[in-house]
Amino acid sequence: MEWPRNPPRRGVKNKNMSETFAEIFEESLGTIEMVPGSIITGTVVDIDNEWVVVHAGLKSEGIIPKNQFLSETGEFTLAIGDQVKVAMEVVDDGWGETRLSREKAKRAETWEMLEDAFERTDVITGVINGKVKGGFTVDINDIRAFLPGSLVDIRPLRETAHLEGRPLEFQVIKLDQKRNNVVVSRRAVLEQENSEEREALLQSLQEGQDVTGVVKNLTDYGAFVDLGGVDGLLHITDMAWRRIRHPSEMVTIGDEIQVRILKFDREKNRVSLGMKQLGDDPWVQLTRRYAEGSRVFATVTNLTEYGCFAEIEEGVEGLVHVSEMDWTNKNVHPSKVVSVGDEVEVMVLDIDEERRRISLGIKQCRTNPWDEFAAKHAKGDRIRGKIKSITDFGIFVGLEGDIDGLVYLSDIAWNEPGETAVRRYSRGEEIDTLILSIDPARERIALGIKQLDQDPFSDFVTINDRGSMVEGVVESVEPKEAVIRLAEEVTGVLKASEISIDRVEDARKELSEGQELSLKIVSVDRKNRNISLSLKAKAIDEERAAVREHRKKEGERVKAGTLGDLIKAQMEGASEGDSDEDARGREALS
């Protein structure tokens, strides 16, 4: 603040007053230490809107800004004639004026007070006004002191908002004026105040006793309650029978609450408190009130990534797992289904009284779309839907009720690999399918596309099974085998080893494309849709058939004719040209 170059000459009202001041000045010269910074006592001789004129027994009066005399509440209470302590700044500033300071005098007074308090371990008053690294700053008049975080209370506090900005009592534990260092402790004051009450209270505390306390601090795991000189811990699990996320849901700092002493360790002076124990345990005989499968209305109390918690009665919460929220979407986020505070109908799925766990379901109180679909449709029904996704193993088709059916790759086309056939389809396309199977319990519906058309392969092998003789045309020839077209969209394989009884090294030397053949089916693989053919087997069958026919005829001739007929027939046969076999027969008869 700038001092006026020519401050008003004040304080000299009349001649008598001048004589009085002169006398005071003469008397004080021998006692006043004329050193800047000295604390002297002066008399207020004049007051205006901005300045206070103080005579301190020097050559001239000193002027001090009026705002230096304001109280903490902003009031000005000085009057002319009052004596005040001021600090001497400059005896002569070059203009013949003396500079005085009330603020420096107040700081000096505060330091004297702090020194006395430190020596006598007296209690002082200050105000916590800010946080710094490791603790807080405390204003003690015009001096700023440091309050370590560990010395704020008997127990460490995470929340100090209720202490800030109001007068509190402290004890000075370290003082160094040269370094402007003051350290204070609130904990020392509390320990001293509570020592006698604490001892008396510790003697009276008993486990199972109901007492009244005041909440003084909250942590993530519970609340510290002042029982009147002794702090007890009210753990979060002992606040309520239901699940709570933070102690602030039940209590706030400053609340007066009723608690029960659960455990008291006299050696360590530790007290464990409970609040839920003041009421009956709602989990007792819970299964009698809620049978598995029963439906109840519950209030959603909390949402998690894996489900939601719902309270079915005061103090009893159950978990609705995410898989029990929706029939069709197993990984839906709980927030998409319910919100905290919603009242929903749930079904009791399981109760574990020992572990205090209840499994609830929301979807069970709603129509199961799989059962509903099974009731409306049957195997063999034709159904239409949009393709929702295409995967490596098939096509998912959206059906009514927001459920999906699956067309496996093998059920897309009859005569084309599924990996190739699936490329003709795209997401969002509407297609017709045939229901192959419905399994509501496993939530599976199998669909088919190829089943909408007749299967030429199945039709062919139904008529022409293994051992049948068929006609075919050579479609292609390779050294080791040939592909034979048997019917529209039906082919068979003729291996080189099955072309002739004689060994065939290269089928291309025996067969040509477009050649018509008569073949025998030697095997049918319906699963892999393969037909194996053989020319060799056909030739062998024809030879065997000829032998059997010949033997049959010979047998009939022997059985039906007489000896004379035989001789006559032999003679006739010889005249017409007998076969070698007939000649051998004649020789045998002769």
Feature tags:
590 residues, alpha+beta, 5-stranded mixed β-barrel, 5-stranded antiparallel sheet, 10 helices, 30 strands, elongated
Please tell me about this protein's structure:
By secondary structure, this protein is of the alpha+beta class. The chain has ten helices and 30 strands. Helix 9 crosses helix 10. The chain starts with 14 loop residues before the first helix and ends with a helix. The model is unreliable at 1-18 and 576-590 (pLDDT under 50).
Write a compact overview of the structure shown.
By secondary structure, the chain is α+β, with helices and mostly antiparallel strands. It has ten helices and 30 strands. It has helices at about 15-30, 100-120, 185-205, 285-290, 370-375, 420, 455-465, 535-560, 565-575, 580-590; strands at about 40-45, 50-55, 60-65, 85-90, 100, 125-130, 135-140, 145-150, 165-175, 180-185, 210-220, 220-225, 230-235, 255-265, 270-275, 295-305, 305-315, 315-320, 345-350, 355-360, 380-390, 395-400, 405-410, 430-440, 445-450, 470-475, 480-485, 490-495, 515-525, 530-535.
Provide the fold topology.
Blueprint: H1 15-28, E1 39-47, E2 51-55, E3 62-65, E4 83-90, E5 98-101, H2 102-120, E6 123-132, E7 135-140, E8 143-148, E9 167-176, E10 181-185, H3 187-204, E11 210-219, E12 222-226, E13 231-235, E14 256-265, E15 270-274, H4 286-289, E16 295-304, E17 307-313, E18 316-321, E19 343-352, E20 357-361, H5 369-376, E21 382-390, E22 394-399, E23 403-408, H6 418-421, E24 430-439, E25 444-448, H7 456-463, E26 469-477, E27 481-487, E28 490-495, E29 516-525, E30 530-534, H8 536-560, H9 563-576, H10 580-589
Parallel strand pairs: 3-5, 13-15, 18-20, 23-25, 28-30
Antiparallel strand pairs: 1-2, 1-4, 2-3, 4-5, 6-7, 6-9, 7-8, 9-10, 11-12, 11-14, 12-13, 14-15, 16-17, 16-19, 17-18, 19-20, 21-22, 21-24, 22-23, 24-25, 26-27, 26-29, 27-28, 29-30
Helix pairs in contact: 9-10
